[in-house]
């Protein structure tokens, strides 16, 4: 007797069931509908409970028809497919998006199974009542799919309403929900192991088993769920402990996360190229500590003045101007080596790049001609670049032509860093965060100092350590004693 | 004319979900009127998504009232490059949003009100909703000459569009939303909804342009508040519920759990731009370089908002061919986005020969390319 098959017709007058595999027994319900069922598959599910071969090949193909849209609409345009042929779907998964006269409709699957055929291409017109996709239903799960539940099931039950309200849409078929309800189980307490954390029948049974301490019959799946051992449920007496060492139970850890691979494109692809070129530069590093106590004070004094002119004054304009003054003495740091390493070009303009962290990633706009700019001018230019950067509107001119770079990584955090030189430049400085630390003054007394670390990287093919050190010392002296900058300002 | 002012309160939505406000003598039919406290288009669209996904509307109807600060909202299957002036929007800081319902492109600002009618899927009926709106407006100002067309627009004086409609149908629920122009910036509306991009070919749903008018122009005493109130009152009457508007905060996770994730998703590039149906760009432009004019021809295929294929036809030897092909290679797979293109072209320049002329030419070409986006 195959009760499911007999009632299929009455429940789904519109469903046309085909069976593609040849089989030993054929049973006809009506001359129109040939409902073919493989007897051997049925024997399988009765006798061989503990094993399951890949019974997918024995599934039935069901033609899922486009259901009524409402308002007397008969045709729609297919706008997007969410699945492709060969994908597995579960009941209620989205299949496609169709559009009809300003209305966008999400069509969801009525069955669990595998998509075997899409009847329409994108932008084609689909007809209500005609097949949309062919789904192969898993035979071992039974032929009769869940009843077409248009309204959310078991909603009158308070608990289930609550679960939907919590925003966590607990996915479960109506049969599973019924099972949970009959056993007074809250779906929100059950861990779902199906697709999208869907709660399966096995999950409910596992949950029940845990509650009652029962030992489950081995599930039809290949994985074995270890029965609960006594040592977990019953506290052992000290005597027992001396005699027995509890064997740790290893439960299979269920983790449904998947690796995600995506191509490297656009800006990131360009960065790969640039950084690979940068690797060819032999880097050396040089680090130091700067006492910014005086500079902090100076900035506090100048901030309101800049504000009155509509400009936000940070520390960067000082760092940038000091660097430019240093580059005047050590122009090799503002140079560029050609590809063949035959010629060094000393750049006249100090176009100092400032590393910026945006949604895209690291971009480096530069302040042009710092050598002839005042600190206020540098500050206002920085404001402009920062505003454009956060709006994502920096232009090519702002992003090209840099000759030297400073990266203020300290605003995010960190002390020392090893920055990578951005070709075609030959040096870069990474600035750590400003920390208040105890230091000794000339009289041997401890005082509160505002300390910042700087980490320089330079191209060792044309820059030597001594040059870098002397540049750094000069830069440091300007910042530790800002008044000295006045002497050399151009 | 005395208007019954609506009683507004802030209640946890969960309370209202469990105890539908059945009217007197009513059957299980319940109704709910809610209004957003936010003017953020993404947050408000997220509220629509949340109600659509989480509320049980089996025997319940919900009316959602909302307004947005300046934004352009395109339909689910539309192409923003075809529909609006993205460059102007970036300059004016006007947001771009893609909604989940179908239909065409609209401009929102605080002078426009949005109404969303939520029902069970079976009870989806747009004409009824629009007739309700017209009835409410006529009750407020009987002299208004307004009617609903068979395209679900509301016209003023038989020719000016004051409301457009769109809808979304899911498995168990559906919603129909529409705009209503009270006092919107018509000048900005028309300039922002005009696309400057040429040579686009696509199967995306096109918008049907229409002459619009504000109700304010017909009757300067009208305000958005009055319109919202009148519509809420008519809705309350028809669904036999109290004229009570519940205010909701679209950032409150306790009332709307999971709402912030929904707002975030609506703001991602992948949703706003990436959901554009496949299209192609075939255009040409002139570049002026050192007293000579150059013709450049560009062909691009864009899928999921990314450049699938790209061809740039430049005058021979103007740029080294190796460099040209490097640019084309980098653009392939990249987002069809001016920001992305500028960033990648500037970065690529670092590994090119350091030639001032070359850099100038490269920057000129890339700037023109970004103008297409």
UniProtKB/TrEMBL annotation, chain A:
Gene Ontology CC entries for this record: cytosol; mitochondrial matrix
Protein's cellular compartments: Mitochondrion matrix
Task: State whether keyword Membrane applies.
Answer: no
Which molecular function term from Gene Ontology is one that the record holds?
Answer: lipoic acid binding
InterPro entries annotated for this entry?
2-oxoA_DH_lipoyl-BS (IPR003016), 2-oxoacid_DH_actylTfrase (IPR001078), 2-oxoacid_DH_E2_comp (IPR050743), Biotin_lipoyl (IPR000089), CAT-like_dom_sf (IPR023213), E3-bd_dom_sf (IPR036625), PSBD (IPR004167), Single_hybrid_motif (IPR011053)
Q: Lipoyl-binding domain location, by residue?
A: 61-136
Q: Name one Pfam family in it.
A: 2-oxoacid_dh
PROSITE patterns under this entry?
Answer: BIOTINYL_LIPOYL, LIPOYL, PSBD
EC number, as in UniProt: 2.3.1.-
CDD domains given for it? lipoyl_domain (cd06849)
Instruction: Name the SUPFAM superfamilies on file.
Output: CoA-dependent acyltransferases, Peripheral subunit-binding domain of 2-oxo acid dehydrogenase complex, Single hybrid motif
Show the catalytic activity. Answer: N(6)-[(R)-dihydrolipoyl]-L-lysyl-[protein] + 2-methylpropanoyl-CoA = N(6)-[(R)-S(8)-2-methylpropanoyldihydrolipoyl]-L-lysyl-[protein] + CoA
Keyword Transit peptide (UniProt)? yes
Q: What class of enzyme is it?
A: transferase
Keywords per UniProt: Acetylation, Acyltransferase, Lipoyl, Mitochondrion, Phosphoprotein, Transferase, Transit peptide
Q: Which protein family is named in the record?
A: Belongs to the 2-oxoacid dehydrogenase family.
Q: Its function? A: The branched-chain alpha-keto dehydrogenase complex catalyzes the overall conversion of alpha-keto acids to acyl-CoA and CO(2). It contains multiple copies of three enzymatic components: branched-chain alpha-keto acid decarboxylase (E1), lipoamide acyltransferase (E2) and lipoamide dehydrogenase (E3). Within this complex, the catalytic function of this enzyme is to accept, and to transfer to coenzyme A, acyl groups that are generated by the branched-chain alpha-keto acid decarboxylase component.
Protein's UniProt name: Dihydrolipoamide acetyltransferase component of pyruvate dehydrogenase complex
Organism (species): Meleagris gallopavo
**Gene symbol?**
DBT
Automatic annotation (TrEMBL), chain B:
In its keyword annotation, does this UniProt entry include Mitochondrion? yes
Q: Which UniProt keywords apply?
A: Acyltransferase, Mitochondrion, Transferase, Transit peptide
Q: Where is the BPL/LPL catalytic domain?
A: 57-243
> Oxidoreductase: present as a keyword of the record?
no
Q: What CDD domains would the database entry show?
A: LplA
What family is reported?
Answer: Belongs to the LplA family.
The protein's name is: Lipoyl amidotransferase LIPT1, mitochondrial
